[in-house]
Specification:
By secondary structure, the protein is α+β, with helices and mostly antiparallel strands. The chain is about 25% helix and about 25% strand. The longest helix is centred in the middle third of the chain and has 13 residues. The radius of gyration is 22 Å and the shape is globular. Bound molecules: shikimate-3-phosphate (S3P). The site of shikimate-3-phosphate (S3P) has 12 residues, from helix 1 and helix 5.
């Protein structure tokens, strides 16, 4: 009989207190890596996310010939040695949707043929929203029914970008980043129109690297790196300038991951008498939707930006909040569901502990994340005694529910749901069993070692 590693999570009887600092933001780390690979010079990425997803991006750059170094608290990437191809490569992205989507844009500007695959979860996720606009711009990309495996036949120059008939409309931050990376390496750039609110890390990163992407309201004009106004910081050589001086180092300090912080915040809101602070965490306004919603529900949470250079960062203070009330969240809300898509299962769980009803709609995108996060959340919570109604595009649930626990939380291999099960265990009547807990490492490798719940856990093997 096969044994499986499990994590057993026990109820927490004492408060969660103290100061926490989290590993770097996953979204920002991915972008830092891709932009660094375009430079001929050393980029030092401090406090990177060591998430398995970001490692996938790091390994991709290594396999393209970039010089990459891993140190205890920083990574160094130098794109000078990046191979100019033509290459024939098989690349596996593991579970990482962000690596896959951004890489498809990035590789469109390389030379060679790239066969791209992912694990079974990633192979079910749509890629066509990235490949279709790139194809329209002249890239040669073949998908398998709109999904991985994908083949990118790249010729260095995406010529179709010469006729950017109209701006390409995007509603996903990953697609925006993929098109930006492709546009930077095209002949005449690309115009992108953002038709939905989305995280803006790509634009901030471009600015940090000295790229002049012109932005007017929701329209971004990305200039190719060969144009004088398109590139200021990436490379003297690629700009056709000769210089004896080496490219200067660029230092990037990645703020703590606010999506990871949401698990700590949820735990502190629900565990009696908790009072905790999270420092050096990213507080980019395009990522603070969860904080805003929790505050709107009556949660005792406050945050303060202490450094507003490049990516806003600061601290969060959260206290036990027994008086939470339910929330209605849809596209008519001040914060739309897509603005906090990764935190929606946590918000639904918080709703089950609040007073009154919670309804989350216009979140159909959840169905194509690492799992179908609507049905998986409903089923997993159901097995822990918490009732959530599955809607086509979200959840409906009533508050003040007991978490009976005592069961096995089937997170379907989805890192965010495995971590949600861990947090639910802290207030469950009976221990919660989380199989394959290691999956949390896709976004937060240190999750199970976090001081907030380390003493409530027992890891073992089970048949
Ligand atoms: C991400 C964007 C979001 C988010 C994902 C990371 C990014 O997806 O769900 O976890 O880094 O750009 P969308 O691209 O669908 O907005």
């Amino acid at each position: 009989m096969e044994t499986q590693s499990i994590q057993e999570v026990f109820r927490r009887s004492n408060p969660i207190t103290g100061r926490f600092v989290l590993p770097g933001d996953k979204s920002i780390t991915h972008r830092a890596l891709f932009f660094s690979a375009l430079r001929e010079g050393r980029t030092i990425i401090h406090n990177p996310s060591s998430a398995r997803d970001c490692r996938n991006t790091y390994e991709l750059l290594e396999s393209l010939g970039c010089c990459c170094e891993t140190h205890k608290d920083h990574w160094v990437v130098d794109g000078s040695a990046r191979s100019v191809g033509p290459a024939l490569m098989n690349i596996h992205f593991g579970n990482s949707g962000t690596t896959a989507r951004l890489a498809i844009g990035f590789l469109s500007g390389e030379r060679g043929t790239f066969s791209l695959t992912g694990d079974s979860s990633l192979s079910r996720r749509p890629m066509e929203h990235v490949t279709e606009p790139l194809r329209f711009l002249g890239a040669d990309i073949v998908t398998t029914d709109g999904k991985l495996p994908v083949t990118v036949i790249a010729n260095r120059v995406i010529s179709g970008l010469n006729e950017p008939a109209k701006a390409i409309e995007v509603s996903s931050a990953q697609v925006h980043a993929a098109l930006t990376l492709a546009g930077l390496r095209s002949e005449s750039g690309v115009r992108i129109r953002r038709i939905a609110p989305m995280r803006d890390h790509t634009l901030r990163m471009a600015k940090k690297f000295g790229l002049s992407i012109q932005t007017h309201d929701d329209l971004d004009q990305v200039y190719p790196v060969t144009e004088p106004n398109g590139l200021q910081g990436i490379s003297h050589k690629r700009r056709g300038l000769s210089t004896k001086d080496p490219e200067p180092n660029v230092d990037l300090l990645i703020p703590g991951d606010v999506s990871s912080a949401s698990f700590l915040i949820t735990a502190a809101l629900l565990v009696s008498e908790s009072d905790l602070q999270i420092h050096n965490v990213g507080l980019n306004p395009t990522r603070t939707g969860f904080l805003e919603c929790v505050k709107g529900m009556g949660g005792k949470v406050s945050w303060k930006i202490t450094d507003n250079e490049w990516e806003p960062r600061g601290s969060i203070h959260v206290q036990y909040s027994p008086g939470l009330h339910g929330i209605i969240l849809d596209n008519s809300s001040h914060i739309t569901p897509l603005m906090m898509i990764d935190e929606l299962p946590l918000l639904a769980f918080l709703g089950t502990q609040a007073n009154g009803e919670t309804v989350i709609r216009d979140a159909g995108e959840l169905r194509v994340k690492e799992s179908d996060r609507i049905s998986a959340t409903v089923a997993m919570m159901g097995s822990l005694g918490v009732k959530i109604e599955e809607l086509e595009d979200g959840f409906r649930l009533s508050g003040q529910q007991k978490v009976s626990g005592g069961g096995r939380a089937d997170h379907r291999g989805d890192h965010r749901l495995a971590m949600l099960a861990g947090v639910a265990g802290l207030i469950a009547e009976e221990p919660v069993i989380v199989p394959n807990p290691d999956v949390a490492g896709n976004s937060w490798p240190g999750f199970w070692d976090c001081e907030a719940w380390r003493f409530n856990l027992q890891s073992r093997f089970q048949y």
